[in-house]
Amino acid sequence: MQINRKLRDVAEIARKMSFQEARFQETKEPGGERLCLEHQEALKLFCEVDETPICLICRESRAHKAHSVLPIAESAKDYKDQILSQLEILKEKRKEILALKSSGGKESQELLTQTDAKRQKTVAGFKQLHQFLEEQERPQLARLEELDKEIVKRRDEHVAKLSEDIASLSALISEMEETCRQPASELLQDVRRTLNRCKREKLQNPVLFSPELKRRVWDSSQIDPFLETVMKLFKDALSAGPQFHTAKMTLDPDTAYPCLVLSEDRKSVRWEDKQQDLPDNPERFDPWRCVLGREGFTCGRHCWEVEVVDGQRWSVGVARESVGRKGEINISPEGGIWAVGQVGSQYKALTSPETPLSLSRPPRRIRVCLDRAGGQVTFLDANTEAPIFTFPQASFSGERIHPWFWVGVKSQLRLRPC
User: Fold this and answer.
1) Cis bond upstream, residue 242 (ω within 30)
2) To bridge 68 with a disulfide, which of 26, 48, 50, 258 should be the other Cys (CB 3.0-4.6 Å)?
């Protein structure tokens, strides 16, 4: 860090001054002043080039004559002032880091609370899903078991009937074969009865399984494609994660503060020093330098991107349609606004109190993600997909939610397609 290097340089000079004082510690005037070893004169000056105390004779010597020299007390005061100045900067930096540490701990706790709530909701959801599937599975398996029993019964009955027919035919065949082996006189005695018996022995071809039973078996298999389709949809939904609809966004000129100039396509807004002559309608923000997106949302998941074209004073987010427009407004979730922004070199989430953001790089394109039903507002760096901030789950109370923008001095924002 530049601050650390400066402080090290100043501290090194102070250390050298102390070292030089130590060198002359043994040689002192009666009054206690340290003396130059070479000239036995009091060390009243400090050479800034060589960074060492010198006496008046040293000052006139060739070694120091061309150098910048100050009284030793004055030089010590200058360096002490520099050290104190750097100390103040370091203390302020430490204060900022402590604030970041505190906000990081707070944000992590909020995220852990959210994940715990999601975990409980997921467990409950899957439990309900298991229960529903089991309730649907039981009657389906019971119907299949009934079909199994009926099929086995029909099969056994069919086999028994065929076995009877086989036994009857086998007996008749044996009788006919025996008749054929008889002498002619005996064969002719009863041949007509034997032939009539053969003609009377009509074999039926019984229907093993009725069309109605086959239809029931076919009907039971129709759930398989349905289950496969549902399973595929379920897997695809889980693997893809929440899907956000890319919102086509424009700015609402009726809500813009008079110093905010909108482009013709209503995609860009910039700050101008001179106020425009605009009607003071109830929808217009005044004196806050805000503008809303024309489109509002009451359901679904939506996302849009905002480019920081210029400036270091801006905020982007969402707001309730009922957000205050006149006088002082509370820019926080309590006031109906969920946003992040930049003021100077500081990036903040506009919570109450504000949450400092520690970002690895300044975001120049911010993606705003609104889960209207889930009450979630998330901000990402659109160029790197790095998360910026996620607000705790909110209740929008059925109200329409609009994109919200605050544009400060010399700043400009532009809506971009995702």
Assistant:
1) no
2) 48
